[in-house]
Amino acid sequence: MQVIHTVWPYLALMLLIAGLFPAIERRYGWKLFSVLPPIVLTYLFVTALAVSGLWQVNAEIKAAQSTLVTHLVPALLFLLMINCDLRAIWRLGPRVLGVFACTSLSLFMAFIATYLLYRHWLPGDAWQPLAALSGSWVGGSANMIAVKQAIGMSDTYLAMSLLTDALGYSMWVVVLFSVARLAPAFNRWTRAISSGDIPLAPVKTKAPTTYDSVLLWLGMALAAAALAAWLAGWLPVSGMVSATTWTILLATGFGLVAAHTPLAEFPGASTISSAMLISVVAVLASQSNFQGIAAAPLYLLCGVTVIAIHAVLLVGFAKLFRFDLYLCGISSLAHIGGVAATPILAASYSAALVPVGILLALLGYILGTGFGLVVATVLSALAGP
């Protein structure tokens, strides 16, 4: 029964649901959230409400959905980049950055190989969830959504990417925590030196978020998104590089520039970006349905296959370049798990590696969207017309 017919009740519901599952996780800490994070539960819950017909899909609500996603995704990426200090990442040194590069390369090869393995069961544009997933498995959920927007992926496919992301990540975290005890034997085999004593400058701490910082950051983010959209209208487009793609890349670049100015010391960007991310996911879910959900097991199998191939290739790179197990594990989770989980894994290995984990995860945020677009270009070419 359709009980919502106008924009404002619809927006109120989206914001309430976006805050519901993070609040429950913070308050109760249920184990369910270690398997299905709040962002996935939000997507599934809103999708279920959309299927039930709680709101009317009329012109007014459709226009609001399109406007919100179009303007909030570039603003979100701008805010995410504020915490990314390229100078600190560069100070990690060639060995750490080499592990990161090998991890990215192994994931790229894994996604291509997985698609070639299952391409006969993924006809047409069904490669798109894998491309969006690749953005997340180098960066995070925001990169997934950015890739989704840039390649014009349907909202139906987003559920596949989010579920595969959540379940594949949960499985891989358990593996990476479990293999820590194998580090001495692994390092002897690769002839590597343990990385537990890498020196690094501490990561900057942020002051508490205040109401004025919320308003200023929102204003700057929306202004950056608007400027990026205006500039994108002047840039050349092609089959894979649309005006939306340019907007997303420009907004990311603006954020990286701002991150190296005194603005980076101003608090609140990470808090607002987290809230904006889950709100955008709720709006995207409100446009979708469960059509095609029967294909979910196939995408889950693809996710497991990607991780398995990635693991084998990364071990090979470790043997070739003498990487130790700790750096390999942290780099892998910095890609697949992001900035929230990586410091926890790093701390379980060695307290000295926590800043390394944070900075590698932030580097993944910088590169995730571009990585996903490259994977999308290759998969699109392999899929053919």
UniProtKB/TrEMBL annotation:
Organism, as annotated: Rhodanobacter thiooxydans
Protein name according to UniProt: DUF819 domain-containing protein
Stretches that traverse the bilayer: 6-24, 36-57, 63-84, 96-118, 166-183, 214-233, 239-259, 266-286, 298-318, 325-346, 358-383
Keyword Secreted among UniProt keywords: no
A Pfam family this chain is assigned to: DUF819
Keywords: Membrane, Transmembrane, Transmembrane helix
